């Protein structure tokens, strides 16, 4: 009996050590993988770049167009533009951490009181939504809720859309990672702006004090447009399909 136990112990102890080593190694591999940062292609991010001066122009153009609306009518149904929408940077990082993410899409929704809201979802390389995780201003959002908000907004602009408000804006991952990988950015704030023909979203980085930041996220990145150094950063102009992020080089 003693001899049997001794043999069994000799077998079990190395096996237990091997099993422990295996799990430790696997956990170490997972931790290492999680620590690897996405490699940003600044030339891809630069596709979205405009200057701080242009951001200011988008805001003033929106004010002008709003003042000229016929009977102040924005859409076919009651619709009011919420001036800005805030998301913590942790929410953006959650979306970017999912497998297969190639970009982030910001959807426009309409709430029951007629005001606009925004929610964000990751998109894959085919520009299809990855709906495992949807995030609104208050946190995680159910798919059914997101669909209802989006459907309500689309219905409100079906016959009248005097500002050509976009149903969504899409940013590529490289542009979003410029924000997500910085420790001094604690959130993003999205404002409404407009070109002469289309309304647009203006996305700005926010610091720990809750202030919009003016920083150069694309320093040394190409291409840099001469004369476009507006002194700060912002993001996104967009045409409702592929947004142009406003970050001053």
Poorly predicted ranges (pLDDT <50, ≥5 residues)?
1-33, 220-249
Q: What average pLDDT do the residues reach?
A: 79
**Biggest sheet, spatial arrangement of strands:** 5-4-3-2-6
Number of domains: 2
User: Major β-sheet, in short?
Assistant: 5 strands, antiparallel
Written as H for each helix and E for each strand, in order along the chain, the element string is HHHEHEEEEHEHEE
User: Using DSSP, what is the number of strands?
Assistant: 8
Query: Roughly what percent helix?
Result: 25-40%
Structural class, from secondary structure content?
A: alpha+beta
The coarse silhouette is globular
How far is the N terminus from the C terminus?
Answer: 78 Å
Query: Per DSSP, what share of the residues sits in E-state strands of 2 or more residues?
Result: 15-25%
What's the gyration radius in Å?
24 Å
How many distinct helices?
6
Structure explained in plain terms:
The protein has 249 residues and is an alpha+beta fold. It folds into two domains: 1-33; 41-206, no CATH class. Helices cover 34% and strands 21% of the residues. It has six helices and eight strands. The strands form two sheets. A five-stranded antiparallel sheet has the order 5-4-3-2-6. It has a three-stranded antiparallel sheet with strand order 1-7-8. A hairpin with a 2-residue loop joins strand 4 (129-136) and strand 5 (139-140). Helix 4 (89-96) crosses helix 6 (173-180). It starts with a helix and ends in a 43-residue tail after the last strand. Mean pLDDT is 79; it is low at 1-33 and 220-249.
């Amino acid at each position: 009996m003693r001899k049997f136990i001794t043999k069994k112990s000799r077998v079990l102890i190395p096996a237990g050590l091997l099993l422990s080593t295996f799990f430790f190694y696997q956990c170490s591999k997972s931790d290492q993988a999680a620590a690897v940062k996405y490699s940003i292609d600044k030339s891809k991010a630069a596709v979205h770049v405009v200057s701080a001066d242009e951001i200011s122009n988008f805001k003033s153009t929106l004010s002008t167009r709003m003042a000229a609306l016929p009977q102040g009518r924005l859409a076919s149904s009651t619709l009011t533009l919420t001036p800005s929408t805030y998301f913590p940077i942790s929410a953006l990082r959650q979306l970017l951490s999912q497998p297969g993410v190639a970009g982030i899409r910001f959807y426009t929704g309409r709430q029951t009181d007629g005001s606009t809201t925004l929610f964000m979802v990751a998109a894959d390389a085919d520009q299809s939504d990855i709906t495992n995780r949807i995030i609104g201003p208050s946190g995680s959002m159910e798919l059914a809720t997101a669909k209802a908000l989006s459907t309500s907004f689309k219905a409100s602009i079906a016959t009248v859309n005097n500002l050509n408000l976009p149903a969504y804006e899409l940013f590529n991952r490289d542009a979003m990672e410029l924000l997500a990988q910085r420790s001094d950015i604690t959130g993003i704030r999205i404002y409404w702006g407009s070109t002469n023909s289309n309304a647009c979203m203006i996305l700005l980085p926010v610091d720990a004090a809750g202030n919009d930041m003016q920083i150069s996220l694309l320093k040394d990145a190409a291409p840099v447009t001469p004369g476009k150094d507006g002194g700060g950063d912002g993001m996104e102009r967009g045409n409702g399909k592929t947004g142009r992020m406003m970050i001053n080089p």
